[in-house]
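Handout, section B. The chain below has 321 residues.
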Amino acid sequence: MEASFRWVLLTAVAPVAWGANYYVTREFLPADRPLWGAALRALPAGLLLLALRPRRPRGAWWWRTAVLGLLNTAGFFVLLYIASQSLATSVASTVMAASPLAMLLLAWALTATRPARAHLLGALVGLGGVGLMLLTRAERVSPSGLAASAAAMLLSSLGYVLAGRWRDGADVLATTAWQLVAGGLVLLPLAAAFEGAPVTPTGRELLAFGYVAVVATALAFAAWFAGLRHLPPGTVGLLGLLNPLTGVLLGTAVAGEDLGPLQLAGLLLVLLGVALGRPKGRPKGRPGSRPRGRPGGRGAAPRSGEEGDARREAVHPTSGR
């Protein structure tokens, strides 16, 4: 029990760090440098993770890494940076909390994987909560920020579908590291071409860049994957709800943003929807039963149940990161 509690605490580092990332980006990083901001988050973090897991992609994973790096890192990080700068921290974190629900619906549209009724209900409840959160605010919500959030969810959802199909033979931590490196390398020339030379960061900006790269990316991913190896996927999924809670708490308690009863109700609906929308593992087989086929080779039965959920969650961690 004590060991499990330690793993829970370690894993909780990831969603808390991701939730705080909205506040740090909005308050301390330059608003007009999304390409540099994303590049300086992705590349250092990817190199740090490669130092922990120095394994090269093999075979098809070279081009798969490039595609996923473009979607899950380059595009997603830039759009998340814009959303974090354009929206109040509490709003950005609540909107992005609905990403798993958007992924569920997109996977249904692209792969004809029909969600269970409870999952579909969770998607509707969560998206309704986002609408309630946005439509009842007294201050104007940035259309560009909402557009960036929607585009980020679309890209990450597409990345989720592809990663789900390509998860065979992947070392998840090494694959994530290479995605970060690939995305960072794509962003560097784009940042130089469209945003000019990077601005020399001040002391606060330097600390903020260090936080988003080292803590909110490298450390968070390492902690998340460690939790997936030692905790049930359902436990890890519930810990992911700390992501929007952290963003909302920082936005209201530190940044002084208003959160009235209707906005709070919207947040609770989003959290309820995410909890309902989490895919459930299939029942495990009889004790001692073995899948047919050679272990790990062709003909081996696909993974199912909690182990399969862990693999899918590992390839594409909680969104809004």
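Note. The longest helix spans residues 203-230. Compare this with the example in section A.
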